[in-house]
């Protein structure tokens, strides 16, 4: 342990001589959390709505009011008869156009169906589907009110209907940031931990000091632990800063145990640090280590972890490949602890996989360094 601590002290002194790198290791993840946390937002609110109300009746105004009062739509344009409605969406004046034809109010008063039309910009399919869901819900609620009014006028009691009362656990407001911010934590930790360790060892190679370390009485395992320990501590400090920033800026509160969160994070970081050390045994320059680190940590952690894109919608081959991405398993545990307040018991499978990944990467890095020494 004395030799391991000596290597760790040397690494800490080297980090202290380069305050810019220390600031980047601690401050960059928090900055990226703020940047991506505000930039990545899947909530669809205040959709720009154009209206062509050719009826001008009370019924048409009530329908339009239902759209506006829902807070999902904002009227940004009013179209007259004969206007080119497609041009409104093509010129991006509105995302959707609500068309209420003449006679809408009279049809409803006479007990007939009142036809309306919603023209929607479908270039963004995900947003368009969400808007269609909002519009369908508003129309269904408007129909329910019309039915009760008609029955009240005739004195007929309202029929029994299903009382639909949804209750959303863990994220009642359905805010996308509650889902995305924990994913950002896993993504940023993987990126910074891998790059920091890979670059630190390769830096030794470029400066020629790696040969001096190899001829010293320090064994490979002690070198690995000594190199990884300072960055593990720094990464844990960065994790604490990120969690604090997530709570202050986005209202993401850790509902579970901080001890459970610490255990899961340490397992994840050990694997990430081991992977960075493994990259350092392959690359001989910092530029190459940086490129390999980005390619093998950033892209899988972003695309194949479930951070942004749901894994269940991927082809079967990609779903199988995602099992090799540690960020996927960490995000399952992280979201369970932070959002659901769950313990570690429901996630033993994910924790075992993270532990296996950490053992494999640290073991392979140690083995490759031992072979180089031989």
Strand pairing plus helix content: what structural class? mainly alpha
The major β-sheet equals: 4 strands, mixed
Kindly state the percentage of residues in helix.
Answer: 55-70%
Going across the major beta sheet, what is the strand order? 2-1-3-4
Write a structural description.
Helix content is 67%, strand content 6%. The chain is built from 14 helices and four strands. The protein has helices spanning 2-16, 19-39, 58-69, 85-90, 104-109, 125-154, 176-207, 209-214, 220-250, 258-282, 286-303, 316-322, 326-340, 348-373, and strands at 47-53, 73-78, 96-100, 117-120. Strands 2-1-3-4 form a four-stranded mixed beta sheet. Strand 1, helix 3 and strand 2 (73-78) form a beta-alpha-beta unit. The radius of gyration is 29 Å and the shape is elongated.
Helix and strand topology:
Layout: H1 2-16, H2 19-39, E1 47-53, H3 58-69, E2 73-78, H4 85-90, E3 96-100, H5 104-109, E4 117-120, H6 125-154, H7 176-207, H8 209-214, H9 220-250, H10 258-282, H11 286-303, H12 316-322, H13 326-340, H14 348-373
Parallel strand pairs: 1-2, 1-3
Antiparallel strand pairs: 3-4
Helix pairs in contact: 1-9, 2-7, 2-9, 7-9, 7-10, 7-11, 7-13, 9-10, 10-13, 10-14, 13-14
Short description:
Helix content is 67%, strand content 6%. With 374 residues, the chain is mainly alpha-helical. It has 2 domains: 9-41 and 175-373, no CATH class; 47-154, abc type-2 transporter like fold.
